[in-house]
Amino acid sequence: MNFDLKTLGLQAATTEKCDLLVVLVTEAKPAGKDAISMLAAQAIQSGDLETKPGKSLALYQAAGIAARRVLLLGTGNGDARSVQRALQGAAATLRAPSIKRAVVCFGAAATPQSVAAVVETVVHASYVYTTTKPKADARTLGRVVVGVPDAESDDVVEAFQNSCAVAQGVELAREWGNRPANHATPTLLAEAAQSLAGHARIQCKVMGPAEVAKLGMGAFLAVAQGAAEPLRLIELRYNGAAKNQAPVVLVGKGITFDTGGISIKPSAEMDEMKYDMCGAASVLGVFRALAELQPDINVVGLIPACENMPDGKAIKPGDVVTSMSGQTIEILNTDAEGRLVLCDAITYAARYKPAVLIDIATLTGACVIALGGVRSGLFSTDDALASDLQAAGEAAQDGCWRMPLDEDYGESLKSNFADVGNVGGRPAGAVTAAKFLQRFVGDYPWAHLDIAGTAWKGGAAKGSTGRPVGLLVQYLLGQAGNASPSADGAKKPAAGARAAPAAKKAAARKPSAKAAAARKP
Questions:
Q1: Is residue 17 annotated as a catalytic residue, yes or no?
Q2: Which of 30, 156, 306, 416 has the greatest count of CB atoms below 10 A from its CB?
């Protein structure tokens, strides 16, 4: 999908030839004499259109407007959240087979955040999964013009370009999250990571069972030993800064299917356990965005990928395994496997002497109970890191909420037969899981994102969300010094988008390129 940013007032928008013209109408009702302003004003006055987010009015071949279809969308006060909600409500229209070129035009002043919200929401709303559904109608929306009423400022251009890159990362994460487990094995996940190494500054290394055994990753090996599919330890590196600059290390849980092992899960909704690798998918998505943004920062991505299966060789409740750190772990529940693969990857991460270590995992159902599908759970040993991640989440419309890590929560992990048990009972399950991981971190600033409630949706809307790619990319840009204090766009423009001629100075800093949000790595 290609995006263009263009200075486009409502008067000029009347002459835009497109399949769909979306006009974002705020509480500050249009007061112009052009056909669009007058149409919107009349619709509001007659009660046919409300400016509340999500309210809309669809028109066909409206007089004085070149677009074949016009969709007036209420956006409330016009902030990013309201724009997002409004466009989400128009998802079915954006996916219509007849819509190939669309224009999304702001009826009032556009902020950098709201412009970014347009790009990311349109990509998300128009996404169509086709990998194992070949008869499905593929996305037909190929070009989208984002029109702002005033000459684009550098901040708006930069936010637009960054959002195009983030959209590519989110869509890659969604794609791999949605694929069935037999189309997203550890080997295939490793191949996806290796394909990212074709981009500038990105390197990839993949290790198999022999190399993992040599490293002493007994916990990771234990989870994988019941599966026919061989494990993979995937190591991605983005080198955007000096070699001596400590990297941010991202560790993504990559359980490509989770049966629960011997402690097998109930059959209802077990198909959704293909999403247990969404932490890994988010790491892939972040690196896809980094490939476009090219920020001045070093980032390492670690993905321990395997299946958790019930086999004659599978680990059993009561077994004791030795982690890479040397700590022994009593396996009290084989369905608490994510923390076992993560603890060894976290230990491995220490060789990079990270500036910051962040793990991302669909770790606990308890976090879903605590926070639902609105915010990811955030646990951290470092107040500054936690604050930065929360701010990044708010700026990216990808929120998280900090949870406690009191020492008393670790008491339930004590074991009579090992250094630690892998579960601590039902109370505060998300917290005790985080306390388990904390034992393997060391002195580095660390954060754990439990995305069990936010990584995918069930029911009729079943599918991966691509979260928390937006949060993580926003955080990394801030650490690279590329984000403005208000976190509304990066100072370094991204590839993957094109600014219209009106943004001459800003556009000149990067050659125009396709956003290609649906493209594979």
A1: no
A2: 306
Q: Enter the pTM of the model.
A: 0.91
Which tokens in the block code for residue 177? Answer: 């999250």
* Amino acid type, 309: M
- Residue 188 amino acid letter: L
DSSP string for 405-454: --GGGGGGG--SSSSEES---STTHHHHHHHHHHTTTTTS-EEEEE-TTT
Of 339, 439, 467, 492, which one is the catalytic site residue? 339
Q: Is 33 a catalytic residue?
A: no
Catalytic-labelled residue, pool 55, 81, 265, 519: 265
Enter the tokens of residue 11: 């008067």
Are 381 and 441 within 8 A, CB to CB?
yes
pLDDT tens-digit series, residues 193-230: 999 999 999 999 999 999 999 999 999 999 999 999 99
274: left (phi over 0), alpha (psi -120 to 50) or beta: alpha
Would you state the structure tokens that stand for residue 494, as one six-digit string? 């991204």
Is the CB of residue 491 less than 8 Å from the CB of residue 480?
no
Is the pLDDT at 357 greater than 90, yes or no?
yes
CA atoms within 13 A on the CB side of 225: 18
